[in-house]
Amino acid sequence: MKHLSLILLVMLLFSLSTTHAQFSRWIIEPVVENAQFPVALAFAPDGTLFYTEKETGRVRLVTPEGELQRDPVITLPTDAFVERGLLGITVDPHYEENNFVWVYHTQPNTVEPPYPINKIVRFEVVDGVGQNPVDMLSVPIVTRVGHHMGGNLHFGPDGLLYVSIGDYGDASFAQDIQAMPGRIHRFAVENDTLVPAPGNPFANNSTYAYGLRNSFDFDFDPFSDGSIFATENGPTCDDEINLIFPGGNYGWRPDYPCDDNDPQAGSRFVYPLLHFTPTEAPTGIIIYDGKKFPEWEGSLFFCGWNRGIMRRAELDDSRTRFEKVEIFDLRDHTCSTDIEVAPDGSIYFTSGGAIHRITTGSQ
Questions:
Q1: Of 40, 251, 274, 310, which residue is most buried, by most CB within 10 angstroms?
Q2: Within the chain, which residues score under 50 in pLDDT?
Q3: Distance of CA 88 to the CA centre of its chain
Q4: Which CATH architecture has domain 29-250+270-360?
């Protein structure tokens, strides 16, 4: 009996040490502790972090050394009513040559008719200061509502600019192929304007995929042919993670029926990879391709506004189905709006009024 007790004690200590080693494989540490409603994050190749402040209209900069620059990079006039504000941000694929940063923000009522306008603005960053802002696209909020703005933008591996725009509170827009709200767009950059990209699913139209209610964010899969994974916010049901196909119709429409997600129904709509009710308002999303955590290579991470939960999903070999979805342990933190992979492989996420990162280390 004495020997059995000793063996059990050794096994317990080994189990605890193994658990601690796994727990200590990564740590969560603050990057900016008093951020003013940070919404979106974007990295320059050298590790400089840019982020948007929803309500102030300011773009902020964190140096590669982790220091928050005292002065904003740029401040844009911004209407932050409900879900409006300074929302998306991305770094130009040729940033090292042109220093361009792009943002999506809501301009207040300044023109006739008096609609607030969601705009894409491009500016140049010189020594930490934004210069020469150019309006690249304007989409008036003709419904005058404050919700379903969408508002993220990313350059794809094809060098084209993809933009998500919510339905502006009118589900009929999502099924109107000539409308701008309720879809993901794809644009080519021509000098100081955006034009529908050549090869888009619909001729002379920037629509890439439609039938979307409010896709808050999306990412490109580097482990496939650059497929797009996007979050989608449902009404009181059917929050979704979607695999976005060119020309795909994702089903949001007037009189939408809850639980409209049966791929056996033979519908004209594209069904989600994952859907869940009650809703959690999924927000930021990434496919991990960093070198810091090889065990997560190819995993999809996404966050949810309502509960602040981060989830990690593993895809099958086809990269078209989930094999496993689990809640990621944020250790008393929450992930509210965005998540991004830094050049060094750390994972940055917004957490209420702060920005944190998941990195290697021990506690």
A1: 40
A2: 1-24, 363
A3: 8
A4: 6 Propeller (2.120)
